[in-house]
Amino acid sequence: MIVADPLTIPRREEGAAYGGHRLERILGYAPTSHQRISALVDDLNACSPRDRSIEHVASYIDASLQTPVHVSEGSTAIHVLWTASGKRTEVFAGHDPDSDVGLTGHEVHPGDTLTVPRQVPWAIGIGNVAFVFGTSPSRSTADSVAWSSSSLPHPPGHGLNIFDRFNRRTICSAHEGLLLERWKISHLLELPLNPARWHYVTNLVDPVALGWPGGLDLLQRTESRFLPKGMTRLTIVPNGLGYVMIGSDPDLELDAVRPLRLAGYDRSAIASLGIPNGLLR
Fold first, then answer.
1. Cβ neighbours of 109 (radius 10 Å)
2. For the chain, what is the domain count?
3. For 16-55, how does the pLDDT look when each residue is reduced to its tens digit (9 = 90+)?
4. Does residue 136 share a domain with residue 39?
């Protein structure tokens, strides 16, 4: 039997005017150039070479200045990693014609996640470093005619925690086609994977070791790997304390709803992650 291995993901640095040097200074990213970096974009589609069918997007964002307004044909999870101290920091989502920016501002803190539905406009305010994971690419547009008038269905939240011995899994966003979770790892983690689904892993802080049947790898700060379908388990070993984000195109019932119910969460708590009502009967 051929065992699938994690893949290194092609990545590009973007240098839009709203960027700066916080990805290097705060997250420890090692840049390939001296330009101001607005985003690190992982090309997940390149990890599906046969049919290039993966529409999901993943990127680190430095909003030293406010980003342009974006809209997407899919759901987008915006996970806040860092905020500037001493002032209110916001992520904007939902059309508000009476505000200065035309969007509704939501105060955010590190660890918060916003899930933005399709066609709902969003922008990341000044003083944020964020990780963005979505089911399809977004496009920047200042044309409010193209924006949905819908408001954000759920406010920013810190997610729901499930403990695996000493390790903490936080489900940040669970929406159709999108599952984003953050792991705080203090001890070796044996992580079972749904082999029918692919997974994306990115490392936030100190290096962690990744192990799987037939291989071992070291993931440095902000580095990412793509776990193709067919992988059944992954071992993550921290160097002290590890923090990783895992994104996937999930089976929401199996990968999110059942574990949360077993952990004791009620319908309203689970619904706050964006899970469709049909799965919450």
1. 11
2. 2
3. 999 999 999 999 999 988 889 999 999 999 998 776 689 9
4. yes
